Amino acid sequence: MAAFEYRQAEEVRDALSRHRVRYLFLGKSGAILLGFPDTTQDADLFVERDRNNGRALVAALGDLGFVLSGELAEQIERGKDFIQLKDGPFDLDLIFAPDGIERFDDAWQRHVEVNGFPVCHPDDIIASKRAANRAKDRESLPRLESFRDYWMRNH
Question: How many angstroms separate the CA atoms of 76 and 82, rounded?
């Protein structure tokens, strides 16, 4: 599996912007957009759970080349907690209810814009990784926390 590339993040940003989707880059892909020196296999998007936003997201995903079954499109429209898209031009995780973050609006108030990318604040990325409590997340937490401290001193 190839690493998720900056060009793909730009494609996501541009398509979702055209369709006025409310979302934030989350997880390691969000941290990378903030400057975290690492790679990831997919992009994690924290998407606002709203039926109209979900419909806009389905249209944007179509523009990106994702082919969605009717059932999958319905799950996206209603904001199923977690959806992995692995049959498209790249891997994309849609997260409507991330661990460690209570409400989209709260995360939106804290988010950071980087080159037009709406990105979760590093504290939210860390909170989500900590709450997920997977082995790979626990392993990356010290590096993410160190990066957050560096980022906060410089922004």
Answer: 9
